[in-house]
Specification:
Largest sheet: 4 strands, antiparallel
Shape: elongated
Oligomer: single chain
Helix content: 25-40%
Structural class: alpha+beta
Strand content: 25-35%
CATH class: Alpha Beta
Number of domains: 1
CATH architecture: 2-Layer Sandwich
Distance between the termini: 23 Å
Length: 121
């Protein structure tokens, strides 16, 4: 079974919506990190200091096929109808992996079986 790490960098106010969308697609555990973004143009000014806002970095280890579904769901949250984005989401293949929970592996295996079964039609 092949795995990917999915990284979503989202505005703090879209954190829960992103988590919910990922879970709806079958993602299990996630690691959340607090971050602060700096862009090429300042978003807000407060007493002469620029502030781009708080962000969350959401990390997920997923079966490769599942990672694509989760990424598409997160993209719908981040990108508006004018193609402007509030964040970024990407995947990267995992070459070696240790320490993943066996119950999570069982869920991934079940997902792969269901995907293959659905493609047999």
């Amino acid at each position: 079974m092949k795995f990917s790490v999915l990284v979503a960098i989202v505005p703090e106010e879209k954190e829960q919506e992103t988590i919910d969308a990922a879970r709806e697609q079958g993602a299990g555990g996630m690691t959340l990190l607090s971050a602060r973004g700096i862009s090429d143009t300042a978003k807000k000014s407060f007493f002469g200091m620029t502030y781009d806002g708080s962000q969350k970095v959401i990390l997920m280890i997923l079966e490769r096929g599942l990672s694509i579904r989760v990424m598409k769901a997160v993209k719908h949250i981040l990108v508006d109808e004018h193609n402007h984005s509030d964040g970024v989401v990407f995947t990267s293949p995992i070459e070696h992996l240790a320490g993943i929970d066996v119950t999570q592996l069982d869920k991934f295996e079940q997902h792969v079986k269901e995907s293959l079964k659905g493609n047999e039609l």
